[in-house]
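Workshop exercise sheet. Pairs work together: one partner reads the sequence aloud, the other fills in the structure field after running the prediction. Swap roles for the next sheet.
Pair: D.N. / O.F.
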Amino acid sequence: MTRYAAKTEVSSEASRMEIERTLTRYGADAFSYGWQGKTQTMISFRAHDRYVRFVLTLPDPELPEFTTYRRGYQEHKREPESARKLWEQACRQRWRALALVVKAKLEAVECGISEFEDEFLANIVLPDGQLLGRAIRPQLAASYETGNMPPLLPDYSGGAG
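Structure field:
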C-alpha cells in the first residue's frame, strides 16, 4: 500500500505552519506546538470553544528500516547521513498526513457535512488534560466484551432511556 505523501519534499516545519494557517482560517483562536525527544510531537488548538490536541508519534530514528538495508540475504548498515535522510522523509510524510487530516475535518465542519465535536471527538481535551478518546477506550472495549453500555455512551438499543 502506498502512503500519502510518501515522497513529499515539504518540510515538517512547513507542514506545521500550514496546519497553523489552516486552523486560523477556520476560526481557531489559539494554537501551540511542542515536542519531546525525537519521536513525540504535539499540536493543540482551541476552536468552537473546545481544546483539541493531536499527538503525532514520529518513528524512532534507530529503527532498522532507517539504519540498515538488505542486499540479497545480507544485512548492511547504512551511512548515518543516509539513515537520517530516510528518517526525515518518514517524518515529513507524517506531518503532511496530519495537515491533510486537520484540513479535511475542518472543511467537513465548514460545509455542514458534520459537526465539530463529531470530527474531533477523540482529540478533544477533557478538563483533566486527558484526551476524550483515550478516556473512553477502556469503556468501549468493555461494552463490546459484555454487551453492556458504559455510562459515558448513550443507549441506542431502543430501551426507554
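Discussion prompt: The mean pLDDT is 94. What would you look at next?
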